Amino acid sequence: MRKFPATAFVNTVTPVHVRGHSQEPIKVAVLALPDVLALDFGIPLQILGRITAGLYDVASCSAGGLPVAAAGGGFTVTPDRGLDLLEEVHTVIIPGYTTCRAPLAGDVLAALKAAYKRGVRMVSICTGAFALAQAGILDGLPATTHWESTADLALLYPRVAVDENVLFVDNGQVLTSAGVAAGIDLCLHLVRSDWGAAAGNRTAKATVAAPRREGTQSQFIEHRVPHGSASRPADVARAMEWAVQNMHHPITAADIAEATAISGRTLARRFEGHVGITPLKWLAMQRVERAKELLETTTAPVERIAAESGLGSGANFREIFKKTTSLSPTQYRNAFFAGEEHGTLPFAGRVGA
What we know:
Elements: E1 26-31, H1 38-51, E2 56-61, E3 68-69, E4 76-77, E5 91-94, H2 106-118, E6 121-124, H3 129-134, E7 142-143, H4 150-156, E8 161-162, E9 168-170, E10 174-177, H5 181-195, H6 197-207, H7 234-245, H8 253-259, H9 264-274, H10 279-297, H11 302-309, H12 314-325, H13 329-336, H14 339-343
Parallel strand pairs: 1-2, 1-5, 5-6, 6-10, 7-8
Antiparallel strand pairs: 3-4, 9-10
Helix pairs in contact: 1-5, 5-6, 8-9, 10-11, 11-12
Protein name: HTH araC/xylS-type domain-containing protein
Keywords: DNA-binding, Transcription, Transcription regulation
InterPro entries: Class_I_gatase-like (IPR029062), DJ-1/PfpI (IPR002818), Homeodomain-like_sf (IPR009057), HTH_AraC (IPR018060), HTH_AraC-typ_CS (IPR018062), INH-QAR (IPR052158)
C-alpha cells in the first residue's frame, strides 16, 4: 500500500495518486458511525461517487453492515458493506457524528488502526476527527474539526495539535476538515490532488462550489459585508478577480490595492482575515494552479505557460513548480495530461497582451 508524503496545508500538497494514462478508479470507503451527520455523509458520496464520473469507486460501510441512525432522527443510513470494506480501499472517509465523545466500538477502532497501518489514506469531515484521534492516528499531527468542537478535541486528545482557524489540514496520509461546507472543500482538494487542477475545477463547477478555498482560510468570519460572500467579501473578490485577470503581468501588492481602490494596509488585513495569507502569496498559488491547468489541457511549451501564468522565464517556472508540487512541469504533464479530450485545442494565451 502506498505511503503518503507529509505536507502541512493545501498550498504545499503534492499529488498523491500520480499515475500514467491507464487510470483506474480510486477505491473509497465512507464509514458511517452512530448518529452520523447526514450532510457530512452525503458530501463524499455526491462529490467523489457521482460527480467525478468514474474517477472514484465509492461505497459506504458500518460496523456489521447494519443501518445507522442519522443525527436528528427520522431516518437511517443503510450502508453497502461491513467493516471488511476498509481492507480493500485506498481511502477511508469518516463523516461527522454526534456521538463523537463516546468510545468507539472495538471492531471499529481495530479496523481504523489496521487501515492506517497498511498505509490507507485516512480522511475526516467535521467531528469525524474524533474517531481518528481515538485511534491514535492524529497523534503528533496538526488537525482540525468544526470550530464548536475544537476545544473538546484538544482537551480529550492532548497529543493532537488542534487548529480551529483552518478549513482543512493535509498531512499526506491523514486529512481532517472543519464542518459542513469545509467537507466540500476537502473533497475538491482530494480530486485536485489525485487527478489534477482541471479535474478539480470541473468537479467544483458541477458541484456549484468555489473552485478552491485554501485550507489555511479561517473557519468563521467576524465581519460580513452586503456583497460578495462570507468567504469572499466584495473588496477581496474584486482584488482576486483583477489579480487573476492580470497575472501574466508583474504585479505588486500596491498594484492590486490601486486597481481595487483600497489602501495597501487594508488589502493586506482583509486578505489575512478572509483568506489566511497575503495577497502576493495567494497570487503565487493561483499562478501555479493556472500553470497546472495549462499543462493538463494544452500542448503549449513550458516557456509559453510560464509567461501566461506570470511565472517568468522557463527556468524560473521550472524551479517554482518543482518546489511547489515536487514534480517538474514535464512530470506533471505526463501524469495528468488529458490529450485526447483537451490537449489538441489551440492555446489562447494572453502573452504580449
